[in-house]
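Appendix C: a fully annotated inverse folding record. The material below is reproduced so that readers can follow the format used throughout the book. The structure is listed first as tokens, followed by the designed sequence.
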């Protein structure tokens, strides 16, 4: 697990990403859409 702390500027930039459901200084929660897309890509070897 990363000990990265996101700055206010990073939080602002990441929060406009359509795949980010929630972001705090300590972590990111991705949307279900992103999770499904990621798993599909992973399974085909990307």
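Designed amino acids, in order:
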């Amino acid at each position: 697990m990363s000990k990265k702390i996101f700055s206010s500027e990073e939080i602002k930039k990441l929060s406009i990403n359509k795949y980010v459901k929630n972001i705090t200084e300590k972590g990111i929660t991705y949307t279900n859409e992103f999770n499904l897309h990621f798993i599909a890509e992973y399974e085909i070897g990307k």
